[in-house]
């Protein structure tokens, strides 16, 4: 009798829901991509931009997108996914590992939405929608968290110098982009065995750095990062301000600006977009700057200045640096920025400059399956 055929390997659908688009990646069990699709609603952000409509507009259109695009796509998928894995930007102090999404977990995640309003809200809406549809209600859903890799931050790195009563409320630095920083760290650890001190530079619509210690034995660990309590702290980003003097914000609030207006301005009208008055897309800014646009030139200069400062800070946290890895839409593709950084940071030599393509999805699949999904 001929042997029975081996069971078909489960395929995993990875979902990354943001403020203006949903990215779907179907992967095999090893995390290798089978196909990828992305759809937006409202104003779809460019790969390096984040000029989305306000949160309420995005949320209003999201159910229509899910019914008209996602539901038929899942019905026609062959092979059908046996698991859905979601990227959640903020896991707070509780969620530091891949987690199955039951009703209790969904409730706990709802409390974290204000900490990452551009991403956690839409992602949670997608999770609930899938759980409520008869066609997908039985499909297991898991989440991986961008904050999880930074759970190893030492106390001195994650603590704000604020009153003890505030710290007891859980107000601390969390860090973000951890999924890609972890992917970069593991990739470098495997391909560059001599690297022990790594700075991972995630540069795209959102930007952050991570100082990574890579021991001779054991997994890489995050020891410092530029983002904090929310993804608003740190570097200049496409439409986010990055770090701003708190006194400036108090000045605006005392002048009559509401908290909601301040939120919108800092998250959606600042960064490269606010500096240039033109765009949050670095590619557009490069072209405009070459044509003499003063705002574009200023945006690029401020972006590079803050980035250079932060790389120096991460090197100090590591006690030196062996390699700097560029990743993300800007990090992987902006040749001019890479050349500028290498020249301006030559004093850090000797070190290796690396490019590592982002692959959060593959990492998420492997993590969830290893956790028993």
Could you describe the 3D structure shown?
The model is unreliable at 1-9 and 42-60 (pLDDT under 50). The chain has 14 helices and eleven strands. Helix content is 40%, strand content 17%. The strands form two sheets. The chain has a six-stranded mixed beta sheet with strand order 3-2-1-4-6-5. Strands 9-8-7-10-11 form a five-stranded mixed beta sheet, sandwiched between helices. Helix 10 packs across helix 11 (294-318). A hairpin with a 5-residue loop joins strand 2 and strand 3. The chain has two domains: 12-150, Nucleotidyltransferase, domain 5, CATH 3.30.420; 191-360, ATPase, nucleotide binding domain (Nucleotidyltransferase, domain 5). It is α/β, with parallel strands linked by helices and 373 residues long. The radius of gyration is 21 Å and the shape is globular.
Features:
five-stranded mixed sheet; six-stranded mixed sheet; disordered N terminus; 373 residues; alpha/beta; Nucleotidyltransferase, domain 5; single chain
Uncertain spans? 1-9, 42-60
CATH overall fold name of the largest domain: Nucleotidyltransferase, domain 5
The structure class reads: alpha/beta
Number of domains: 2
The gyration radius over C-alpha positions equals 21 Å
What is the helix tally?
14
How would you sum up the global shape? globular
Strand order, largest beta sheet:
3-2-1-4-6-5
- Helix content bin: 40-55%
Question: Judging by the overall fold, what is the CATH architecture of the largest domain?
Answer: 2-Layer Sandwich
CATH homologous superfamily placement of the largest domain: ATPase, nucleotide binding domain
Tally of strands? 11
The sequence of SSEs as H and E is EEEHEEHHEHHHEEEHHHHHEHHEH
Strand content: 15-25%
Classified by CATH, the class of the largest domain is: Alpha Beta
Distance from N terminus to C terminus (CA atoms, Å) equals 34 Å
